[in-house]
């Protein structure tokens, strides 16, 4: 008797990978008619083979960069959607693209779009028909609205932009903090690209030198009325020179002169507040999508580690499925 493990359809993508151990428990009690039937129809067996293939693919140190670059293509995303919705042949894919006014040869579709999706482990080809892998289905479910942001990030790159906006998802960062992740030679260029495309905010306050009062008693020093006025106008949290000048109704030149005298009397000190960069609303949305995709890749890699065992499936099947 063939148990429910055969032909079982996953309820969701998380379950497809997440319930792997439960499936193995079911496998121990599964009684297919022949081992061939088990190998050809068992979802657990197919899932394990897929994960083994994915492990070899994701093991590439450049996988994440290649993965994002493959997805940053509008036509490729259309093809991915066509295959996700229904496994189909190359001819059908070409026709579906024509229906949305994308006219390309079968050779171009195959080489420039389908092959990269296969290389990333997102789809498979069998006897001329293309189908999404479980991993591919899981990734596609996390691509919601991703196509709206494709034009805002470089199509073929080292993915520095993707790295930075995921970093900023944790909170605003200074230029120095960004340089700890990206090299100093590319930080400015990467920030400029993301500010130009409206994914990160340009700091509105370019005055990052603030003046603060020291703990020294001002009565111990001889101050002019103007100096005392400037001193008393400095708030506890500090203030930039241009704002202080407006507050005391003096020119910035006169304000700086008074501050210089106050600093000489150790009543005022300066503190540099570095510029910080943060995500815009669109940047937040894209960063969330990228983070979810990165997490799915990492989760899949962790599952592939579980799959790699010294004992092969064939040995296991031989011992457990062939019964007297």
Description of the molecule:
25% of the residues are buried. Mean pLDDT is 83; it is low at 1-16 and 311-324. Helix 10 (160-168) crosses helix 16 (281-307) and helix 13 (225-233) crosses helix 15. The chain folds into 2 domains: 1-152 and 288-324, no CATH class; 209-274, Arc Repressor Mutant, subunit A, CATH 1.10.10.10. The protein is 56% helix and 8% strand. It is mainly alpha-helical and 324 residues long. The strands form 3 sheets. It has a 3-stranded antiparallel β-sheet with strand order 1-3-2. Strands 6-5-7 form a 3-stranded antiparallel β-sheet.
Question: What layout of secondary structure does this protein have?
Answer:
Elements: H1 13-18, H2 20-28, H3 35-41, H4 43-58, H5 63-71, H6 74-85, E1 88-89, H7 90-99, H8 106-119, E2 123-126, E3 129-132, H9 134-140, H10 160-168, E4 173-174, H11 175-179, H12 184-196, E5 209-213, H13 225-233, E6 239-240, H14 241-248, H15 252-264, E7 268-272, E8 276-277, H16 281-307, H17 313-321
Antiparallel strand pairs: 1-3, 2-3, 4-8, 5-6, 5-7
Helix pairs in contact: 4-16, 6-8, 10-12, 10-16, 13-15, 14-15
Features:
324 residues, elongated, 8% strand, disordered C terminus, three-stranded antiparallel sheet, 8 strands
Based on the structure, what is the oligomeric state of the protein chains?
single chain
Counted beta strands: 8
In what range is the share of β-strand residues? 5-15%
Number of helices: 17
Ranges with pLDDT <50 over ≥5 residues?
A: 1-16, 311-324
On the 0 to 100 scale, the average pLDDT is: 83
